Amino acid sequence: YLTNDEEEDILNYMERHHLQMVSTGTGMRYQIVKEGDGALIEPGQTVTMEYVLRNVMGDELYSSENDGLMTFVVGCGDVVSGLDEAMRHLHKGDVAEVIIPSHLGYGLLGDQKSIPERTTLVYMVHILEVDK
């Protein structure tokens, strides 16, 4: 029941924002807004990005403007699995919108700070650097 409700919320969000997103088998969705010129990001590479994280209602939860740039190693479990998966579809320089269902985000508990339980995450990311 909860999964169906979340899927409906995601589809409504995409319709409201006129998005044509690529959907993966896990439920993560992404759309490249502006293409970069780098190679496809691979596991083991370190990514540095600007981001804004919102819920599907549009409430801002975190952002690089307030919390600093995000840097992590792809494939090492440093971030939620949905964001890690999204990186494997992006390139250096890409600007993309990514929707992460709660089971690939912070799940039933949230992050105990700004993200409530069972929250669908909507990231707007700009991949600034990709290092080995």
Distance between the termini: 42 Å
The DSSP helix count reads 3
User: Structural class of the helix and strand makeup?
Assistant: alpha+beta
Shape: globular
Order of helices and strands: HEEEEHEHEE
Low-confidence stretches: none
Task: Report on the biggest sheet.
Answer: 7 strands, antiparallel
Question: Approximately how much helix is present in the residues?
Answer: 10-25%
Please give the number of β-strands: 7
Average residue pLDDT: 95
Strand residue percentage = 25-35%
Whole-angstrom Rg: 14 Å
Helix-strand blueprint:
Elements lengths: L1 H15 L5 E2 L5 E6 L11 E10 L4 E4 H4 L2 E4 L7 H7 L7 E6 L20 E11 L1
Antiparallel strand pairs: 1-2, 2-6, 3-4, 3-5, 3-7, 6-7
Can you walk through the features of this model?
A hairpin with a 5-residue loop joins strand 1 and strand 2. The protein has helices spanning 2-16, 64-67, 81-87, and strands at residues 22-23, 29-34, 46-55, 60-63, 70-73, 95-100, 121-131. With 132 residues, the chain is α+β, with helices and mostly antiparallel strands. The mean pLDDT is 95. The radius of gyration is 14 Å and the shape is globular. The protein has three helices and seven strands; from the N terminus they run αββββαβαββ. Strands 1, 2, 3, 4, 5, 6 and 7 form a seven-stranded antiparallel sheet that branches. It is 20% helix and 33% strand.
